[in-house]
């Protein structure tokens, strides 16, 4: 049922790929079935009452009206409480990932207590290992929501909300900001990417390095355009321009599956379109449209960014 790595992932609470989501799905199915059985039973009871002469009334009132609801609700309450504890309980060997919501993108830092490896717009998770997501916001309230992995958690300015998740199936799962945060709130998606632990370790290893050097002449030209056009005022490309954090880290931007926070396929055409006309693609984004760049410069900088895949 889960989509393969490489495709755009599902955004559905019915495709469970994390422990929290599995509990929630299991409870939903159980309660739906139990509710359905009780509904049919009530229909049957009404039909029988129609034909009955009124005998055995006390038994029905005490049994069906008092004992049955108490027992059923107590069982469902116990199961929900158990599920809630399983979801919220402390876990061992946690990895910390800090995700900060911005209008309209996600800053992602792996292990902020230690080495602080920065990336954006994709959240990688190792399968089978608990991860504590430290959720923050830099401007307004956002909400972090990947239905296949876990329930929503708000990101509130000045606060850190923690959500512990464990991915259970390799795959890509779509997430979406679930709290209205401005004009382009609907264009603020992302992907959670669950990898086998070895692949996750490789990913973290790659994040430590500098960006790939430009190889083709056009890519070299693109790197110059990137610096001369002033992009480093907001964007970091490790080894080329460091320090700025107003926009997403672009060190491995070409390696993302999507552009613009989970919105468009990452390819040369979309990159060039984005740079020249971001205000049309994502109104209100904190990046100006570079519609004054010449055609060759625009192609070069797009080609350079596309080559930055790790
Ligand atoms: C004033 C700050 C600012 C400047 C200058 C700027 N950007 Fe951006 N850029 C942003 C912000 C903010 C975003 C995130 C927009 C969003 O998705 O809401 C962004 C997003 C991007 C993305 C998409 C990243 C992703 O992960 O999908 C690319 C590519 C990009 N910028 C390239 C450039 C290039 C090339 C230049 C220079 C020609 C540039 N930017 C100049 C702020 C800036
Ligand atoms: Cu939002």
From TrEMBL:
Alphabetical list of InterPro entries matching this protein: CcO_II (IPR045187), CcO_II-like_C (IPR002429), Copper_CuA (IPR001505), Cupredoxin (IPR008972), CuRO_CcO_Caa3_II (IPR034236), Cyt_c-like_dom (IPR009056), Cyt_c-like_dom_sf (IPR036909), Cyt_c_oxidase_su2 (IPR014222)
GO molecular function, one term: oxidoreductase activity
Gene Ontology annotations for the cellular component aspect, listed alphabetically: membrane
Domain Cytochrome oxidase subunit II copper A binding: 92-206
Transmembrane regions listed in the UniProt entry: 23-47, 59-84
SUPFAM superfamilies to which the protein is assigned, alphabetical: Cupredoxins, Cytochrome c
Keywords annotated in UniProt: Copper, Electron transport, Heme, Iron, Membrane, Metal-binding, Oxidoreductase, Respiratory chain, Transmembrane, Transmembrane helix, Transport
Membership in a protein family: Belongs to the cytochrome c oxidase subunit 2 family.
Protein name: Cytochrome aa3 subunit 2
Gene: coxB
